[in-house]
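My main concern about presentation is that the manuscript never shows what a single data entry looks like. An entry of this sort, consisting of the sequence and the corresponding backbone structure tokens, reads as follows:
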Amino acid sequence: MFKDSEFIRAEFTDLSGLPAIFAMLVQHEGTFNFEPGMAKEDEGREQLGNFMMILMEGMRKADEDED
């Protein structure tokens, strides 16, 4: 879930938050979609962190896991 272009919620398999984002980034197959709008319960959530920093950290972790 995004709010103001920042992650505020993520779920993937049995993971949530940053671990879910990092797990999604290393997937080689699959599909995803974006849906407009936001659930009421997500409106007051704080961001999980800066979007670009989260992506950079996820890619760093993915590179380390490949070694």
The beta strands are 2-3, 6-7, 11-12, 15-16.
